[in-house]
Design goal:
39% of the residues lie in helices and 21% in strands. By secondary structure, the protein is an alpha+beta fold. It has a 7-stranded mixed β-sheet, sandwiched between helices. It has a 5-stranded mixed β-sheet with strand order 3-2-1-6-16, sandwiched between helices.
Length: 503
């Protein structure tokens, strides 16, 4: 019996996606299962990891049964997930508290204190990243100070993909690409720094040993197999960060190649062959050995579009029910009727504070330039342009840090919008390419499994067999002056409003 299928699992913010791939990267079937986000207090943004696991089991079982898949044909499993988790697990594998996700900023004061007492420069020298509340580090210390009874019970702190892998295999792991979440992670050498862990007050025993992302760490247990509707014994690799797996799934694995992210969050990942840190950006290991990713991570990616659709897209949702045409596509059509620059309407997409490059938890979303002549269409296009301005902002910081960017490979739901892709090309001045799969993140996770179990000789072969470009967008030089003006307004708006937002 041919074991020629790979299962990729993506633990996202709004839901998890599971997909089965053939060896050449074709999607055999896929499914998405949603779960809630809990906004329990200002700055508190949580999810229940067991909601993720239940969704994975529910979705995988449904996908395999509805598509008559023989699970004996699955050669390996790869899991990717959102970053900066702090999943507290006791020795019996119980989740001790909800997980504060990447948007959670409850540890802001703790991080300020640690930066002052230990020294920002010393922390950055080890980790290659600024100590900010969204990372895992501050959340662990927050547990220690605010939930001491729970903290004493913690056996390990897991990331989103390693938690699902634990539920599947019974093995607690920590892949190298998610190491960037911890400021006791040595970014140059890819290992834990015990001295920094002690300085931060983080017990080294809480941190699993670090593994390569394509390393097989365990196999599906009989209990997990029954819940997922598959068979026991399937090898499971360590997996990695969603952005890094999406970068691989988009075919980005050599220096200078760049992935543009258009999921719930926005940003980019520039592939490097050396450790090149900048405190305004995010640095982590790629899932490909010997590579780093210099990343821009924003809160306003596809999430800003989703928010606009939910708040202002009632008419489009009604038309979707009548015609079957996606409400998001209808909003795209509406925005396309407005000229580039949105007639002066500019949107700041800081819908949950902002990460790179401004790192301001108190930043707010803003529409500027409204008057009686402006319509929903102007605001819709301004949302698309505002997210593209945030991408340009991150890219320009990366250039100043010495990074080189050529063509960008787009991933995430936003890549399905032809208008948005063209706007991003026009605003950044960089060509945009869209790979052939809507599931590049799960494909990247599946590719890790394929390399890990020997289905592919190496990562170059994996990309060569699975990744093809289906659309390309060249920047329109005639729009450069208009978008340069809009970008200047974008930058000046935040600079002018920063003090007001802080109050």
């Amino acid at each position: 019996m041919a074991k020629d299928l790979l299962l990729g699992i993506d633990i996202g913010t709004s839901g998890c996606k599971m997909a089965l791939f053939s060896q050449n990267g074709n999607v055999i079937c896929s499914i998405t299962e949603e779960y809630p986000v809990y906004y329990t207090a200002p700055g508190y943004v949580e999810q229940d990891p067991d909601d993720w696991w239940n969704a994975v089991c529910r979705g995988t079982k449904k996908m395999v049964s509805e598509h008559a898949i023989n699970p004996e044909n699955i050669a390996g499993v790869g899991v990717d997930g959102q970053g900066w988790a702090a999943i507290a697990i006791d020795a019996d594998g119980r989740v001790l508290t909800r997980n504060p996700i990447w948007m959670d900023t409850r540890a802001e004061a703790i991080c300020r204190e640690l930066n002052e007492t230990i020294g920002e420069d010393r922390i950055f020298e080890v980790s290659g990243n600024p100590l900010k509340a969204q990372y895992t580090t501050g959340k662990i210390v927050w547990y220690q100070r605010n939930m001491p009874d729970i903290y004493k019970k913690i056996d390990k702190i897991l990331q989103s993909n390693s938690f699902i892998i634990y539920r599947m295999t019974g093995v607690m792991s920590q892949d190298i690409s998610q190491g960037y979440a911890f400021h006791c992670f040595d970014m140059r050498n890819g290992c834990w720094n015990n001295d920094m862990a002690a300085a931060l007050g983080i017990g080294r025993h809480l941190l699993p040993d670090i593994t390569k992302c394509h390393e097989v760490v365990g196999a599906v247990t009989p209990i997990a197999a029954e819940r997922m509707g598959i068979v026991a014994g399937i090898p499971v690799v360590a997996g990695g960060l969603d952005a890094a797996c999406g970068t691989l799934g988009a075919g980005v694995l050599h220096p200078g190649q760049t992935q543009e992210q258009g999921g719930q969050a926005g940003g980019m990942s520039i592939c490097l062959d050396k450790c090149c840190a900048d405190p305004r950006l995010i640095l982590g290991y790629h899932v490909v050995p010997g590579r780093w990713l210099l990343q821009g991570g924003t809160t306003g990616g596809g999430g800003a579009m989703r928010w606009f659709s939910e708040q202002f897209g009632y008419e489009e949702k009604m038309k979707e029910q009548e015609t079957g045409c996606s409400s998001l596509a209808l909003l795209d059509n509406l925005a396309e009727k407005v000229m580039a620059g949105s007639d002066g309407v500019v949107f700041l997409p800081y819908m949950a504070g902002e990460r790179s490059p401004i790192w301001d938890e108190k930043a707010k979303g803003v529409f500027y330039g409204l008057d009686y002549s402006k319509t929903k269409a102007h605001m819709m296009r301004a949302v698309l342009e505002g997210v593209a301005y945030s991408l340009r902002h991150n890219l320009e910081v990366a250039y100043s840090a010495g990074a080189q960017v050529g063509t960008m490979r787009a991933m995430g739901g936003a890549a399905n919008s032809r208008l948005w892709m063209q706007i991003k090309a026009d605003i950044t001045g960089k060509p945009m390419e869209v790979p052939n799969s809507d599931t590049v993140t799960t494909l990247g996770a599946a590719m890790l499994a394929g390399v890990g179990v020997g289905m592919y000789r190496d990562f170059d072969e994996a990309v060569g067999k699975t990744v093809q470009v289906k659309r390309r967008y060249e920047p329109h030089g005639a729009l450069k002056e208009e978008y340069d003006r809009g970008y200047e307004t974008y930058l000046r708006l935040y600079a002018s409003l920063k003090d007001i937002m802080d109050r």
